[in-house]
Amino acid sequence: MSETIPKKPLKKGSLVFVDKNIYDKSIEALASDSDLPAYIFEGPGEILGIKEEYAQVRWRRPVPDVWFKLDQLKEYLASE
Question: What one-character-per-residue DSSP string does 34-78 give?
Fold first, then answer.
């Protein structure tokens, strides 16, 4: 029997990156600069807080924190 591993919900402290395909199709993409930095799609960013369906993400760079919809974020898995 092969059971699927349940997906962990994102929470405060989770390491994430932005899913480019989902973000590009969102209403937020229409309201933002089309030339976004590559690091948001590469990760990792850390979730600082969650309010309803949005997460505040801090990148490991000297840039401001950013709010993204939770469905646009994916868990960052470090390469071994």
Answer: SS--THHHH--EEEEEEETTEEEEEESSSS--EEEEGGGEEE---
